[in-house]
Amino acid sequence: MFFAEHWAAAFVDSAVMRNTNVGGCIEALEVLASHVKKIPGPVFGSAAAFQLERLLHQAAGSVSGIENIELGIRLTVLLVRKNLFHHMDAVIDAAKKIEAKRNGIVNATMEYASPPGINTTDSDALQTEELRIKDAIRKRTGALSVEIDVKINPELIGGFRLRIGDEVIDSSVRSQIKQLQACLSGGGN
Furthest-apart CA pair in the chain: how many Å? Predict the structure, then answer.
């Protein structure tokens, strides 16, 4: 079984041990992954990894503004060699989460049934509500900063669903209807 979190943790730890910019390493990894994905046909195995490493080093020489690319090349080549490159996006996402946690940033997702404020013209009230939610998350998690990604999910019917890491606060109409159905059918005792 593949655990992207373990690979990402090893990648981030390597960057920290080298006293390098972890964010820059993750950015380099994203650039490398996008280049490898453009290669036609399957890319895996030792022979492909050897050729890929040479190509990536050549390409790294022509790319400016990307620091710490060597660490990204090593991880990319290792994943190709072990036929695990298809997990690269999961490793990158896990590395971003680890880096955010190291920096005291909590990422949350707020899902609404319809865009917030659709029935109001008061943008100040919307900003105040978002600040209130961020402040509550900051207090609850001890985070230095909170970033909220707002998504529209019409399946919620109304209300909202807030995801903070693995925790979900579901205050949607859909969730309330399901709870009511369970209670009425005798499954909510």
Answer: 67
